Amino acid sequence: MKHIGKVKGTVLAGAFVTASAIAALAEFPERNIEVIHPWGPGNAMAMSKVVAKAMGEELGTDMPVISLPGAAGTKGQKTAMGKPADGYTIFDGYVAPLVLQPILGNADWNYKDFKPLSAAVANAFAIAGQLDESRWADFQELMAYCKENPGDLRYSSGSRNNLPHMVIAKVLQSYGCVAQNVPYTQDGNVFKDLGSRVLDFAFINVGNYRANPDKVKILLVLSELESSKKAYDGAPTIGELGIDLGLSNLGPMGWTWWIVNPDTPDDVTEKLRGAMERAMARPDVIEAIEAIGFVPLDWDHTKYEEIVGSVDAQLNSMGNALAWEEEELGKLN
Amino acid sequence: MTSSRLLNLAALGFLLVVIVTIFRQIETDLKEQGIASGGPYDNAATYPRIVASFMGILLLVQLVTELVRKGDTSDASEVELSDLRRAGMLIVVFAVYLMSLTTLGYHLATTPMIFAIMWICGMRQYLNMAIASLGIATVFAFFFEVFLNVVLPLGIWNIFIPW
Amino acid sequence: MIVEFLSAGLDVFLSPLALGFTFCGILVGLLVGAMPGLGPLMGIILLLPVAIGLPPVAAMGFLIAIFVGGSCGGSVSAILLRIPGTPLAAATLFDGYPLAQKGRASDAIGIAITSSAIGGLIGGVVLIFCAPILASFAANFAPPEYAMLAVLGLFAIVVISGGSIVKGLLAGCFGLLIATVGTDSFSTGLRFTFGSHNLLNGFHIVAVVVGLFAISEMAAQMLGRDLLRKPDVKVERPGLGTITMTLKHYVNLIRSSAIGTFFGAIPGAGGVISSFTSYAVAKAAAKPEEKYGDGAEGGVVATESANNATVGGTLVPTLALGIPGDASSAMLLGALLILGFIPGPAMFENSPDVVGGIFMVYLASNIFLLIAGILATPLFVYVLRIPKVYLIPSILLLCSIGTYALQASVFDLQIMLVFGLIGILFRAAHYPLAPVVIGMILGPILEDNLRRSLLISREGYWIFVDRPVSTILVVVNGLLLATMVYLTIKRARGSKQSELAKALSADE
Question: How many CB pairs under 8 A join A and B?
Fold first, then answer.
């Protein structure tokens, strides 16, 4: 049927598009491959563009990155899932829409519903405080202050119910600290209001920290990895402070695996996988990723179940610190 | 009753529908989600409610002004029916074009759309119209697909030009 | 500090892409300005999808150049056809057309282009000096200040831009409500999405604006009976002598540019008010033998230098505070947001290269304007001769592909069409469209900062009068509100429409 339709369409279009029928018989990819990115422009999108450009070069086609932000990344995911399973749509599978939102009950899929291509990049978060803070000297003292003054401190995790919010809430819960999260849609403004002392502490990503390392004080790196500690110039990590979040490796970090629709033909998927693996192994790509402070990941598709599955299990079992925070704030009001 | 007054009332009617929709959604959908009450952290309804209420007041002021003002014919620009018909047909053709884009694809749908608009404008040199519409469609496709890497709608027959 | 921005900007500016697109932007701007019915705003709207695929400085160069070229291009059709291509050029007609009647059409165009370029450069100097100062003053602005600034921006455009205040406010509120559609970032709930996942992030601003402005304008054009007509215009290329002709009016040039920059920097005032005001001032200051209104060179100098200087002025609050002064700068702000930069003090801190690059492209676009304007005048005259029967379908096609290209979304096209119908209704009922765009841009700034202020505050609404700058803004907003009530009552008692008011009511 599809073939007949194609012939019919070509006849209808006349000589104008005859060339397309010939091209249709050519090998994948015969046209641009779109990468659906679930966030607005920024460091993360710049990362995806780096990977897409290299991968496109490997495939001999262009790979435009389309930004479709909204609803903690689920808008992009839904849109990508609605596209044909022909390999021309790749989804930039960030942890929030892929794992976290399904756990929070905001999405009806899980990570097993997709075919992985390869792991892409990861990014560690940290908690930053004001530079000339007089109320506390380190993270432990901050938590002690917070416990004495419940509900008095204001912090920001960027958007509400995102991964940094979940991780920070878990940390605060373990110290019995109740503070008010103030949502921001733009990371730059979090940074600015932390500087002008409107916020007491805030989540920060590597990109924002690297842009202005002398404007804030990093109190805690939300990762155990040595590479993350290095990215934040040796600030203390959760491991060193003995905070047990039940999260290890990629657990507390932001990361992305590139995935495609599960019905994508195997030969197409293999081609995409090969191209992405070659792209991720290129020194220029690794260098570009590290320059922004992200960590290039070199797991191939065979590790998807293991790696993503373990994050899924960890986040699932860490308990809902977000619900705890809401409840405690509700008691104070 | 001037046509300008009728248009003014139509606009007010439209804005009234917007306000009513906002309040109805707050009462139904937003309440169900539990985001229509509480403090600024959880309450997503207060702000649209304030804006819509303010709009309601303005709407009343405008309505009263409209009704009090007697037969203001000065700015009722007379538009002939035949002229209006052209504009109406343009919108219909454009709407049909947008709806057929997903099925027919850019390359099948665009040339007829341009051709039809030229016809509505009153042009009748069919050969010129055909050449011009094909030319305009192709030039735009070339610019967007080649320079800007846009994948234009392919339609159900997957038609595209490998430039 | 200023040198820092300029040197950081120079590196990104001196790329073939940035230079090339800035030059293209001038050509596009002159074209859309010259074509009656279009204008700088429409040019920016139509080509925004092209720009956002580019590196930031090239993209802003392209759009700002369209703004600059478009602010000047309207004079060409005003002088030659007695139709101002944009309302900005309505006052240019007073002396430009009589000059053309006297056989000095190419002189008039040359003077218009030269004055525009010089006015723009003077506005640029003010931009480069004032924007960083304003940004550093605003560096400690927190959510309460931003919430009040957003209200100020909205009120100012309604009060200052003339026309019906109630209709302006209604349009502005409509824009605020459009902006609430989508995921609420505070409660993470969904507002007014009617179960459609396409609306999870709200309406795309480009789809809305293209519909409101461009689709409705094309429908309005269809009402005309000149669709097949080829306007008969002929003009010579202006000589370089027109530059000296313009420079002779140096006092007028500097005064009008100052007026233009000032009105540009005030949210809501914009180019039309600048050009009429500086025309009036120039006429009052002129000697009787200059014969204003009967082909005085000074009249063209005054209006054209003022409306281009406005562009520089309007970029000051847009870049330094993130509060746009008019619909065109609102679209520039929207473009910056789509490109991933948040205009405001943070941008001056974190992306000095982009800020400096914007300064550089603005200055360059005025220089390009002089070169391209003088060299390419015959080209624009040729464009004026293209009948609308070709233009209308081309522009509709540009609207559709451009909107589709943003997110490869057919849904956006449907939104565009719906807002096209709303735009037609608003136009027909004489509702201004600019406040809708301003409302849509300022809406999230207002709501988010309002709620953020209340979350940060330990004593509720008092936070707005706790901080000095915020308190001043509260007072100013109160005064503006009182002015609106006063003007509405006064106008209800009837008043005559001035030339300015007529031009303003056409200023979409």
Answer: 54
The span from the CA of B71 to the CA of A50, in Å, is: 65
**Contacting residues of C for B11, CB less than 8 Å apart:** 425-426, 428-429, 431
Predicted confidence at residue A200, as pLDDT, reads 93
Name the nearest CA neighbour of B87 among B98, B77, B76, B79.
B79
Q: pLDDT confidence of A62, banded at 50, 70, 90?
A: confident
For residue C507, which phi and psi values (nearest 5 degrees)? -85, 85
**Range from A45-54, A66-75, B21-30, C462-471 carrying the lowest mean pLDDT:** A66-75
The total number of structural domains that make up chain C: 1
The answer to whether A41 faces chain C, any CB pair under 8 Å, is: yes
Contacts of A105 (CB under 8 A, 6+ apart): none
Question: Can the peptide bond before residue A29 be classed as cis, meaning omega within 30 degrees of 0?
Answer: yes
Q: Please identify which residue in the block is written with the tokens 């920059």.
A: C261
Confidence class for position C269, pLDDT limits 50, 70, 90? low
Nearest CA in chain B to A184: B41
Please tell me the predicted confidence (pLDDT) of residue A18: 40
Amino acid residing at A68: L
CATH 3.40.50.12780 for domain A125-250+318-332: no
Is C503's pLDDT higher than 70? no
**Measuring CA to CA, how many Å separate C336 from each of A226, C48, C253?**
36, 10, 31
CB contact B162 to A (< 8 Å): yes
Q: Amino acid letter at C466?
A: D
**Which residues of A are less than 8 Å from C202 in CB distance?**
70
User: Per the CB < 8 Å rule, is A10 touching B157?
Assistant: yes
What is d(CA A274, CA A103) in angstroms, rounded to the nearest whole number?
A: 31
Backbone φ and ψ for A161, nearest 5 degrees, come out as: 60, 25
Structure tokens at C425: 């209704």
Provide the residue ranges of all domains of chain A, joining segments of one domain with +: 1-30, 31-121+256-299, 125-250+318-332
Parent domain of C340: 2-505
Chain A residues close to B147, C-beta within 8 Å: none
The CATH-assigned architecture of domain A31-121+256-299 is 3-Layer(aba) Sandwich (3.40)
Give the sheet arrangement for strand A89-94, strand by strand.
A65-67, A34-37, A89-94, A254-260, A115-123, A295-296
Q: Which of residues 55-84 of A touch C (CB under 8 A)?
A: 64, 66-72, 74-75, 78-79
Tell me if C222 sits within 8 A of B120, measured CB to CB: yes
Over residues A42-61, the pLDDT tens digits come to 677 778 888 888 888 888 88
- Residue A309 binned pLDDT confidence (cut-offs 50, 70, 90): confident
Looking at this predicted complex, what is its ipTM?
0.92
- Counting one residue from chain A and one from chain C, the pairs whose CB atoms sit within 8 A come to 87
| Closest alpha carbon within chain C to B24 | C192
pLDDT of residue C178: 95
Question: Can you list the residues of chain B whose pLDDT is less than 70?
Answer: 1-3, 70-78
Return d(Cα C158, Cα C173) in angstroms, integer: 11
What's the rounded Cα separation, in Å, for the pair C15 and C59?
A: 12
A interface with B, Cβ–Cβ below 8 Å: 5-6, 8-10, 12-13, 16-17, 19-20, 23-24, 26, 30-32, 34, 62, 64, 88, 180-181, 329, 333
Residue B59 to residue C170, Cβ atoms within 8 A:
yes
Report the DSSP beta bridge partners of residue A119. A257
pLDDT digits (tens, 9 = 90+) for C198-249: 888 889 888 898 898 889 988 988 888 888 887 777 777 787 888 888 888 9
Query: How far does B50 lie from chain A, in Å, by closest CA?
Result: 21
Q: Would you give the end-to-end CA distance of chain A in angstroms?
A: 63
- The structure tokens listed for C347 are 């941008």
What are the phi and psi torsion angles at A180 (to 5°)?
A: -90, 125
pTM for the model stands at: 0.83
